[in-house]
Amino acid sequence: MIITVDGPAASGKGTLAKKLAAHYGLPHLDTGLLYRGVGYLMMQSGHALDDAAMAARVAQELDLFKIDQEHLRSDEVGEAASKVAAIPGVRAALLKLQQDFARQPGGAVLDGRDTGTVIAPDADVKLFVTASPEVRAKRRHIELAARRTPVEYCAVISDIKKRDERDSERSIAPLKPAPDAVLLDTTDLDIEAAFRAAIEIVEAPRAGRTRP
């Protein structure tokens, strides 16, 4: 069984994908970490984020196991990831890696922004997780405060909206729901309620029911 979980930043898709993977005993891939890895290495090496040739080369040689993943969680790296993700050569370099992960025996859970539209368009279940920009910004603001990375709320929501615009309007694999994806709005849901809703979505076709 292949499950894809797409959505904008701070929608809760990553947490839901991890919980779904654990629930069904499936491997999980946060595809956004691949782009964060490319963005991080570009920053570390001093290359401009719009250097398409270098970014594509970094993507081709990417080995996430060599990077401390804590370095990939900052908003600065997230911003860099959003920029390099718009480079066709980067997306092409990372495409096969993601597709191979999805097609492994037994299936997998993938989350990102184009897993249901580009990476695994034949997935058994596709979720598109969203929430209002204000709620997503509040979640991110709390997360940053917990990591002792103080940022003003107004800066966080501004960044959220900029990333939404850039991700949705890029010419290659824009952020959008797959035609057969099920929308899960987590604006008014805590993680446990969202997880129960996600399980309902996954189980509905297996039980012969119409998805909620």
For the structure shown, list the relevant keywords.
alpha/beta; five-stranded parallel beta sheet; 5 strands; 212 residues; 9 helices; Rossmann fold
Task: Give an overview in words.
This protein is α/β, with parallel strands linked by helices and 212 residues long. It has a single domain (2-204), classed as P-loop containing nucleotide triphosphate hydrolases (Rossmann fold, 3-Layer(aba) Sandwich), CATH 3.40.50.300. The chain is 53% helix and 11% strand. The protein is built from 9 helices and 5 strands; from the N terminus they run βαβααααβαβααβα. It has helices at residues 13-24, 31-45, 52-60, 75-84, 88-102, 115-119, 133-146, 153-169, 191-206, and strands at 2-6, 28-30, 108-112, 125-130, 182-185. Strands 2-3-1-4-5 form a 5-stranded parallel sheet, sandwiched between helices. α1 (13-24) crosses α9, α3 runs parallel beside α5 and α7 packs across α8 (153-169). The chain is globular and about 55 Å long. The mean pLDDT is 93.
